[in-house]
Design goal:
The protein is mainly α and about 210 residues long. It is built from 7 helices and no strands. Among the domains are: about 100 residues, no CATH class; about 35 residues.
Length: about 210
C-alpha cells in the first residue's frame, strides 16, 4: 500500500502485494506520474509561448517541436528511417497504379517522382502546405477572440472601475459585484499575453 495520503501513489512493483487499494497505479485515477507529465507539458507550453518570439496566429516552432516529440515517442512506433527496399516498394506500387489509371481514366499521369518519407521527413516536407491552409483559419479565429477583449495598450492606464467597464459583458456577468481588485491587478498583464497564448493554444491543437 502506498504511504502517500489522499489516494496518490506511484504504484507498487511488489508482485506479492495483492493490495487493490488506491495506491496501486492500475486503479488510481490520480497517478502522480501522469500528473507530473501533464505539469511538465504545461510548463513547456508556457515557456514556449513566452520565449519563442512568434507573433503570428500560429506558433509554428511549437507545432514542429510538439509534432517531433509525438513522432519520436515509443507509443507512436518511433521515427525510423525508410529502408531502401521499402522505398522501392513504394515506387513500384505507384508505377503499377499509374498503369491502371492510364487505362481507366483520362487524367494525365503525375510528373512528380515517387518518394518514400519517414515520419519526420513527412512533417518537414508538408509543413509549408499546412501553414498555407491553417494560417487564414487561425487568423480569423484570433480576430474573433481578440475582438472580444480590449487592447492591452488601451487599458494600461485605467483604474479598476474603468477596466471593469472595458471588459466584455460576458466576462463581467461572471462577477455581478465587479471583478475583485486582486484579480484586476493581474488582468492587464494577461491581456498583453492573450494573443500570444491564443497562438500557442491553437498550435498545440495541431
Amino acid at each position: 500500500m502506498s504511504n502517500l495520503p489522499f489516494g496518490f501513489g506511484f504504484g507498487s512493483d511488489d508482485a506479492n502485494s495483492g493490495d487493490p487499494g488506491p495506491g496501486n497505479s492500475g486503479q488510481n485515477p490520480f497517478d502522480m506520474n501522469s500528473i507530473g507529465a501533464a505539469l511538465q507539458q504545461l510548463g513547456a507550453f508556457l515557456q514556449s509561448a513566452g520565449s519563442s518570439g512568434s507573433t503570428g496566429p500560429v506558433n509554428w516552432e511549437m507545432v514542429r517541436d510538439v509534432a517531433r516529440q509525438q513522432l519520436a515517442s515509443p507509443e507512436a512506433g518511433g521515427d525510423r528511417v525508410v529502408a531502401d527496399a521499402e522505398a522501392r516498394a513504394v515506387t513500384d506500387a505507384l508505377h503499377l497504379a499509374d498503369v491502371w489509371l492510364d487505362e481507366a481514366t483520362v487524367l494525365p499521369a503525375t510528373a512528380g517522382a515517387p518518394l518514400a518519407w519517414s515520419r519526420s521527413q513527412w512533417l518537414e516536407q508538408t509543413l509549408p502546405m499546412w501553414q498555407r491552409y491553417v494560417e487564414p483559419i487561425a487568423q480569423h479565429m484570433q480576430q474573433v477572440v481578440g475582438g472580444a477583449m480590449p487592447n492591452a495598450a488601451d487599458v494600461a492606464g485605467l483604474d479598476s472601475e474603468a477596466l471593469n467597464a472595458a471588459l466584455p459583458e460576458q466576462f463581467r456577468a461572471m462577477f455581478p459585484g465587479g471583478i475583485p481588485a486582486e484579480m484586476m491587478s493581474m488582468m492587464q498583464p494577461m491581456l498583453g499575453m492573450a494573443q500570444q497564448l491564443g497562438a500557442a493554444a491553437f498550435s498545440m491543437q495541431l
